[in-house]
Amino acid sequence: MTLCFRLSWFYAKQMVKSVLYIGTYIFMATMLISRFIIRQHDPFGMTDYGNFVGEMTLIIQAAMLLFMVFFYKLFSDEYRFGANLLFAGSLRITALKIAALFANHLLFLALLTGLQAALVWQFYRAWGIPFSSLYTETVSYIAAYWLLPLVFAFFLGIFTALLFGKNRLSFAWMMVVWLAIGPMNTELFSRYFHHISFSDIHSLFYIGPLNMDDVFRDVIGYNVSLSTYMKMLFWIIASMMAVWAILWKTARTTKEKAAIIMGATLLLAGDAWLFPHIFTGSKLVFSYADLNQENVYYQTHYPTIKPSTLHYSIERYDIQLDAKSGVNAKVKVTLRQIRGNTLSFVLYHHFALKQVTDQTRKRLPFIQQGDVITVKRSSIRPADEWTFEYKMNDSAQVPVSPHYLFLPNDFSWVPTRADHAPFAFASDHSGPVSVSMQPSQPIRYTLSFHGTAPFYTNLPSRSDGTYEGAVSGGITAVAGMFLKEKIGPWEIVHPADWPGVADVWPAFERYLRRIHNEMVQMFDLKDAELPTKIVLLAPHGEQRSVYSSDHLLLQIDTPYSLRSQEGTLMYLPEIITEGLLWSGKHSSKQKEAFQALLTRWFQQQLGLPYSGGDLTFDLALSVDSSDGKTQQVLRQMSGEYERLSDEKKRQFLALWYKQIREGADGSWEKTVQLIRIVQEGQK
Predict the structure, then answer these.
(1) What is the pTM (predicted TM-score) of this model?
(2) What keywords is this UniProt entry annotated with (predicted)?
(3) How far apart are alpha carbons 641 and 632 in whole angstroms?
């Protein structure tokens, strides 16, 4: 024990005196503080503070390499000058030296990494971010992606020293290992790793985030899970095993060799236990490969739903969500006006249906094919109550776990009466595009949630902890990392990393009301009141809005303040108008061109910057056609439109919208003709 303490004290002095070792910590702290200063004086007003810690990824990568070099040099220098020969019992002394050095490194890492975590906390507090799980999850992220790679660097440096000694090849070896396994490879070989799903064995070879600018998502939190820690521990234990195994050359007795074999076996057993856990439990929303699989799925799967199986109506849903061990749903559906013995429902294909029972608890035969469930019944009653029990599995498109849920009101997270899938493939998007599943008629809902994550739904809360209400347009259920704030009559749900929402809300509210009021008058939208419950969450980086009778899901993916004209408000007209005018409608070239003109009109009226470029270019981009004739008509249309006065532009847009909704002849020539009719005052 005395020898171990002396070795620790000796190495502690060596490490403190080392310009390379202490300098690395100073370098990390300096770069962190510089990030604080840059953010404080950011001319664009960025506020995505959840992704702030990801900005240190390159610094951690550099620190990992520097620590590898330091420990390699320290150990190889001792062997070079024969310091190991000063002690009897080479294996025991070498093991004690490594243990003492490792204990010192862990102590320094814990203190200085803890100090950096405290600085990040103080930075959050200075910017007015309310205390929430964001703070504790930030510490978890720092532990996973800042601290553990630097622990890994220690054993890599020691192993290199024991393997090569004082040899120039050692530096080439360290560079290869650093590039192959270290966090740097996700930056250098991003195209390769973006095609690897989290369940693929090749994902073992990256220990850093796939994108340092995207380490935090609304609701879901940081890209940290148990599998993240398992992966890092796997490599740390593997490097420990390599160090222990290479000490074989210092073993002189049978007892020492037996100790090496036993130690290596125990470490190998530890890695064998960790290995299967590395590929389960990852947050799939961060996986580019898994999201692409969803895209391919909807590119190749076209569900067929027979109209004859949709002869029924849904009067009520009674929903139970159990998020304690996995996420399981039990949904009782009250059916009315049933005609026929076979009924079809739409339910997201990643949700595994276990059973369907009727009101007598009799099991009903069903077939689940992708997003479509077909149920057969023997009853001839025009009304019935069926209970669907299913497991909600996590996916890249729909985040579902005991720690987070994002189930918007236009998505089929309960069995829904519809003739289409919840998502559709779109070539101009990086992932599947949601297709509204909103019911138009009012439906009564009751909802109970059993879980530990913070939960929100738009339904009124009852005294027994359940939620109940009648809603047209569906209900939203969200659990995870977000905050709820009361601002005057408004109930705002927003990401946990947004500071000072109450301060910036008045400016945002002013534009929101103006756009909504103008839309109601311009397009004669009856019963389109602006809800006072606003959900401002966008875990997928989407820009869209979904209206319900009692809340508005406003997905604004912005790293800027809500009152930022260049970063947020300029996109608000496009998002609001899309949700108000086209709920449940499929995309078309006429619709996309209309949206481009309407968005530009609102931006001009509100004095906002343009979200695009030249109007002709925006029209061509929205239509995305290579046909020369179409491009020529679009240029003509743009010129004719630009010559209209503001009031006539308003009149034309209202008439064009009515024409598109009524399914009239949608030729571009007819649209140009409509512009001329408005110009001449004939309508």
Answers:
(1) 0.90
(2) Membrane, Transmembrane, Transmembrane helix
(3) 14
